[in-house]
Write a structure and sequence with these properties.
Number of helices: 2
Strand order of the largest sheet: 2-5-6-7-10-13-14-15
Order of helices and strands: HEEEEHEEEEEEEEEEE
Strand content: 35-45%
Shape: globular
Length: 166
């Protein structure tokens, strides 16, 4: 019976791209720290570091994304101007692993978008769309990259994270 538990616990879970409309998730403020009372406080050094990091970031205009899974298309609307592109989902065995758990993890659906794709001052030469685990309610629109481990950095110069607006 123990063997059945171990085998059942090792199954893969899948975070798939979902049809719907998505809005930008603001990046975390790197200068923020939590106080013991739960409020935010900025130390001088952290505030300066956060200001420098924000100065290097590419400004993101008003952006929304609409995913149509059935048509395998993505519509990116930037400041009221919409551009629709087709995307090609990669085979499941090429989906990166994410959200590690005790005995399993998730595979996050990865799709290649016809590109290049320009969003404000950011141009993605080989754009990809990544469904974030556990349920695909968040997606990352980013430059094609090699995913290793479970960490999914979203550098502001080449990535935008979106949340499903249900």
């Amino acid at each position: 019976m123990f063997v059945m538990f171990v085998v059942a616990g090792c199954e893969s879970h899948y975070a798939e791209l979902r049809s719907g409309e998505y809005a930008v998730v603001p990046p975390p403020d790197e200068g923020d720290t939590k106080t013991e009372a739960g409020g935010n406080a900025k130390g001088d050094a952290k505030a300066e570091a956060g200001s420098e990091a924000k100065a290097d970031a590419v400004p993101v205009p008003a952006v929304t994304v609409k995913i149509d899974r059935e048509a395998t298309s993505i519509t990116v609307t930037v400041d009221g101007t919409a551009t629709t592109s087709k995307y090609t989902p990669r085979p499941r065995e090429q989906w990166p692993m994410g959200c590690p758990m005790n005995m399993s993890s998730y595979r996050e659906e990865l799709a290649d978008i016809e590109g290049p794709l320009t969003i404000g001052a950011m141009t993605l030469e080989k754009p990809t769309l990544l469904a974030r685990c556990p349920d695909g309610a968040h997606v990352m629109l980013t430059e094609a990259q090699e995913y290793t481990g479970h960490d999914r950095p979203c550098p502001p110069e080449s990535c935008i994270e979106f949340a499903n607006q249900k």
